[in-house]
Amino acid sequence: MITDTELIARYDGRVPRYTSYPTAPHFHPGIDAEAYGRWLEALPEAAALSLYLHVPFCDRLCLYCGCHTTVARHERPKRAYAAALASEIELVAARLRRQARVVHVHWGGGTPTALPDDCLRELMALIRSRFALADDAEIALEIDPAALPPAKLETLGRMGVNRASLGVQDFDEAVQRAIGRMQSFAETRAAAEGLWRLGVTSLNLDLIYGLPGQSAETVTRTARLALELAPARAAVFGYAHVPWMKKHQRLIPEAALPGALDRLAQEAAIRAVLVEEGGMEPVGLDHYARREDAMARAAQAGALQRGFQGYTTDAAPALIGLGASAIGALPQGYVQNATAIPAYEAAVHAGRLAVARGIALTAEDRLRRAVIERIMCDLTVDLPDMARRFAASPAVLLADAAPLSAFAADGLVSWDGARLAVTRRGRPFLRNVAALFDQYLQQTASGPRHARAV
């Protein structure tokens, strides 16, 4: 049998995470604010929406972070940004020309709770006034447990937050020092308990492997502590070292990072704890959920979705991205707002949607997106059947499937010439399988754009 060392040598290239297809490096300025406005106006009146609000502020800089965020210690820029978010909400609502139904609101960042409490409450109230928020809408928010005082908890309760994601990463103090994120288990537990008291019904924890100082033993301890917080879900990400994109990551010496074999062992160690000790179900590439959770049920039913927030049960046909750098996904394609905060604020205060780039989907994009999403979500897909659903020739997909024979010989997939299924051993290489059907990948400009596969 092929060894892990040989697998890594063959497959540990740089491939996208496939939270969209086509992926963000292929967005272009040809899709502008006017195009986005037309797309909004064309949404069917009965179409349900999801909203994503990006808050690009944190109270501390975590060295591993790959998000669009900045440290802001004063209220003035935060209040200015909140005012811009309010203007964008008004602009989008006006282009929709109706009080559209919203089934999901996700606050991400950065650290959404970095905004002043009154700003958070007023923005949520504005959403409720401009959109028809469903009675059972999921209102989710990403939280830094070290920045959750009682007043902030009260604000989250008044906002109606019913799902929360706590950033854990690692509980080992040496690892925390190496990444500039000190956070005790006690304060994380206090945050979780505070959220439960609010009535939060689903708690997600984010864990990371591949950080400096980590080993299979240390991540095992962290995973066991995480289970003590009784999460409904856990997301287990491999650290993406991309210092050419995120300059602060240069403060993490590359020599201090675990090698690919160690990363593979760390991922397996966390999985063993969550599945064998915690009774959680593996979901897609890197998520876990308790059997009774909606995410596990969606995965079992083949209804799991993948988008810019990772895996989700949200099946709304349109995601509206609000805030600097936020990405929206509509039936016609993808749009992304200006990344720089000043450019974003200037656009919306001038009465313009802040879109800076995007991409319109072709018929073949839709087909390949569906194939890639099912691989990433279900770990299996029937290529001829998928082609028929999109009125396409199976040859379009089967031409890209030739390498699957080698994947099968290496034990990563089963492949009968029509249906592929990723094996347990192949799960860490799921992105490599999906990449076979990415016709844009070979068009990516020279130079590293993506994180390593393992």
Summarize the structure.
It contains 16 helices and 19 strands. By secondary structure, it is an alpha/beta fold.
Uncertain regions spanning at least 5 consecutive residues: none
Give the CATH class of the largest domain. Alpha Beta
Q: Over all CA atoms, what is the radius of gyration?
A: 21 Å
Q: What is the helix tally?
A: 16
Strand order within the widest beta sheet = 9-10-8-7-6-5-4-1-13
Determine the N-to-C terminus distance.
Answer: 19 Å
* CATH homology superfamily name of the largest domain: tm_1862 like domain
Shape: globular
Query: Which architecture of the largest domain would the CATH scheme give at its second level?
Result: Alpha-Beta Horseshoe
Oligomeric grouping of the chains: single chain
Total strands = 19
> Strand fraction band?
15-25%
Fraction in helix: 25-40%
CATH topology of the largest domain: pyruvate-formate lyase- activating enzyme
The largest β sheet comes out as: 9 strands, mixed
**Class of secondary structure makeup:** alpha/beta
Instruction: List the domain count as a whole number.
Output: 2
Quote the average pLDDT.
94
Output the keywords:
single chain; 454 residues; alpha/beta; Arc Repressor Mutant, subunit A; pyruvate-formate lyase- activating enzyme; 9-stranded mixed beta sheet; 16 helices; 19 strands; globular
Give a description of the structure.
With 454 residues, the chain is α/β, with parallel strands linked by helices. The protein has 2 domains: 1-22 and 362-454, Arc Repressor Mutant, subunit A; 24-360, tm_1862 like domain (pyruvate-formate lyase- activating enzyme), CATH 3.80.30. 38% of the residues lie in helices and 21% in strands. It is built from 16 helices and 19 strands. The chain has helices at 4-11, 33-42, 75-96, 117-130, 150-159, 173-179, 185-198, 216-227, 260-277, 294-301, 341-349, 363-378, 383-389, 395-398, 404-409, 430-435, and strands spanning 49-55, 57-58, 70-71, 101-109, 132-143, 163-169, 202-209, 233-238, 280-283, 287-290, 305-307, 310-312, 318-322, 327-330, 333-337, 355-360, 380-382, 413-415, 419-422. The strands form 5 sheets. It has a 9-stranded mixed beta sheet, sandwiched between helices. The protein has a 3-stranded antiparallel beta sheet with strand order 14-15-16, with helices on one face. Helix 3 (75-96) runs parallel beside helix 4 (117-130), helix 3 packs across helix 11 and helix 8 (216-227) runs parallel beside helix 9. It is globular, with a radius of gyration of 21 Å. The model has no long low-confidence stretch (mean pLDDT 94).
